[in-house]
Amino acid sequence: VAPTTPVCEVPSSAMTGTVVQMSCKETEGSPPSEYQWYKNGVALLEKTGTGSARAVNITYTMNKKSGTLLFNTVTKNDTGEYFCEASNGIGLSQKCSVKRMQV
User: Fold this and answer.
1) What distance in Å separates the CA atoms of residue 40 and residue 42, rounded to the nearest whole number?
2) What are the backbone dihedrals phi and psi of residue 96, each rounded to the nearest 5 degrees, phi first?
3) d(CA 62, CA 91)
4) Angle made by CA atoms 61, 67, 72, in degrees to the nearest 5
5) CA–CA separation, 10 and 85 (whole Å)
6) Separation between Cα atoms, residue 90 and residue 2, nearest integer Å
7) What is the spatial distance between Cα 20 and Cα 90, in angstroms, rounded to a whole number?
8) Fewer CB within 10 Å: C terminus or N terminus of the chain?
9) Three-state DSSP class for 31?
10) pLDDT of 76-95, one tens digit each?
11) Is-contact 98 81, C-beta < 8 A?
C-alpha cells in the first residue's frame, strides 16, 4: 500500500540551546514507510559516525524508521523551512506541507 500524506510536527519557534524534536508519521503505508527530512528543500543527511558527522557539523539525529528529527541543542543556523517525505517503494512518496521554525 502506498503511503498517505504524513503529518509533520515542527515547532514554529525554539530558543537557542534547547532540545527540539520534530516528528513525521503516516499510518497507511505497507510495508511501513521510511521518512526523510528536508530543510529549505535540501535532504538532511543521516548521522552515520561521529567523525564524518562532526566534519559537516551535524547537530541533529534523524531516524528514518520512526520519522523523528532531534536537535540536541538548536542554533540560529537551524532556522529554516522543514518538511518530511514518506516512502516505502510503492506508489509515489508523499510530503507534508512545509513548516518554518524560527530559532
Assistant:
1) 6
2) -90, 170
3) 24
4) 25
5) 14
6) 5
7) 31
8) N
9) coil
10) 999 999 999 999 999 999 99
11) yes
Taking the C-alpha atoms of residue 94 and residue 10, their distance in angstroms, rounded to an integer, is 17
* Angle of CA points 52, 81, 79, to nearest 5°: 65
CB atoms within 10 A of CB 42: 9
Indicate the SS3 state at residue 94.
Answer: strand
19-31 pLDDT tens trace: 999 999 999 999 9
Task: List b or e across 55-79, with b for residues whose CB sees 16 or more CB atoms inside 10 angstroms.
Answer: eeebebebbeeebbbebeebeeebb
Per DSSP, the three-state class of 80 is strand
Q: How many Cα atoms occupy the beta-carbon half-sphere of 29 within 13 Å?
A: 23
- Cell 513548516 belongs to which residue? 99
